[in-house]
Amino acid sequence: MTLQQQAVKTIWVSIIGNTSLAVVKWLAGFFGNSYALIADAIESTTDIFSSLLVLFGFKYANRPADANHPYGHGKAEPLITFLVVGFLLIAATFIAYESIIHIRTPHLTPKPYTLIVLAVIIFGKEFFYRFVNKKSNELKSVALKADAWHHRSDAITSLAAFFGIAVAIFMGKGYEAADDWAALVAAGFIYYNSYRIFRPALGEIMDEHVYDDVIADIRKVAATVEGVINTEKCYVRKSGIHYLVDLHITVNSHITVSEGHRISHHLKDKLLLELPHITNVLIHIEPDEHI
């Protein structure tokens, strides 16, 4: 299975999971008198649309390079991530606003069975977070990372709702608003997680230098290629789930241009083979004057 196929499969798992849990939350929140659970359902609903956005963005980002986009379409992935963050911020703002309204409005205490529903949801969302996050690390995808954090933020809001409802139920009359305060706290967590998702996507758009591990792997592979004496400058840019590399290597100053060309192509082929996340390498040859 290719990297793209793995990512698409992961996103579909995320969409199915979000849809199933959103339906459960809406029903339990409505019939169980819990705004915290309804707030949680609102976030899960936005998660469905954001996952669809991630799916669209990922497929577009992995279109092959063309005359107008010689480096491919990978930058679409962090741009889609910005839209996903927008969905999160809108959801958090709506939840915070409605929570404040409900805190000031007398209402019924949530039903006890909502705690059981929330316990199942918390474990389910944490499972989805770990699954998607693992894939995002394997595929080096900021969009999948954003989708994973959607699941984690959902688990956090569900946990906040659990405690709020528990206080409202067990403390009794006068504590009905604990459920709404929990939803307000959850909105704060969503704002925080939005920043955590936004920051690496911004770094990718700005070609921020955060790929020391990739550079170390590149130098390690280069050291195994016959004719490469050393590696000097190495710059890495990320485009979607792929890397674009500019690499300076030193070779014997007395060899022919043709031989230097052969060494660079051998190195490029080996890098593309052993480091599948790299899709293009531009190699500059430097003569080693000490030989």
Summarize the structure in words:
This protein has a three-stranded mixed sheet, covered by helices on one side. It has helices at residues 3-31, 35-61, 76-103, 113-139, 142-171, 178-205, 212-222, 257-274; strands at 230-239, 242-252, 278-288. The two termini are 46 Å apart. It is mainly alpha-helical and 291 residues long. The protein folds into two domains: 3-205, Up-down Bundle (Alpha-lytic protease prodomain-like); 212-288, Alpha-Beta Plaits (2-Layer Sandwich). Helix content is 68%, strand content 11%. The protein has eight helices and three strands. α2 packs antiparallel against α5.
Question: What is the beta-strand fraction?
Answer: 5-15%
Report the total helices: 8
CATH topology of the largest domain: Alpha-lytic protease prodomain-like
Which residue ranges are poorly predicted, with pLDDT under 50 across at least 5 consecutive positions? Answer: none
Largest sheet, order of strands side by side? Answer: 1-2-3
Q: Could you tell me how far the N terminus lies from the C terminus, measured between alpha carbons in angstroms? A: 46 Å
CATH class of the largest domain equals Mainly Alpha
What do the pLDDT scores average to? 82
CATH superfamily of the largest domain: Cation efflux protein transmembrane domain
What is the structural class? mainly alpha
Number of strands: 3
CATH architecture name of the largest domain:
Up-down Bundle
H/E element order: HHHHHHHEEHE
Rough outline: elongated
Helical fraction equals 55-70%
User: How many domain modules?
Assistant: 2
